[in-house]
Amino acid sequence: MRKRYALGTAAAVGLVFVLACITVNIYFPEATVKQAAAEIVDEIQKKAAEKAGQEPIKKISALPVSAPFSFIPAVYAQEATTVSNPAIRALKDSIADHLAALMPALNAGQIGLSNKGLVEIRDEAGLNLQAKAALRNLVKEDNADRMKLYAEVAKALNIEASQIERIQKIFAENWIKGAAAGWWVQNEDGAWVKKS
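Above: the chain's sequence. Below: its structure in token form.
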């Protein structure tokens, strides 16, 4: 009887140990998100520059540079990862409109691109009450659209909502890479620096 009890206990403890070691691995297609973010940010920045009558901001490339003797075909590295649906297209247009309207404030250093993929007000000095209110409303609208865009990208790529923060971070890197010289951007540690 004791032997049977000991064997049952050992089996139960073993089962608990095995179940405790199992971790849930949530799939996150990082390469696909990086490519989609680069394409979306590039498109938005080009549209915004055209609307603002400015020189287009440099193109962001998320494609890996292949070595001259690489065995991986170039076609594989350049696989189309365009993420699009009507909601994403509408959000891209809306964010481009906002970005065009925000460019004077970005150029003046009044706002900057945060490390969370959002736009933040940095300095309102010299603005009257009406201009402050208008800038705050535009930043609020733009950030709301950016958050909706990140959620739509997650939905289009079948990524769980709990992973939107990772998508935001990837988009933030692309917004900052594509920022014009003189714009304020936020480092990983939260410090603001002027992009050179």
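Confidence is low (pLDDT under 50) at residues 60-80.
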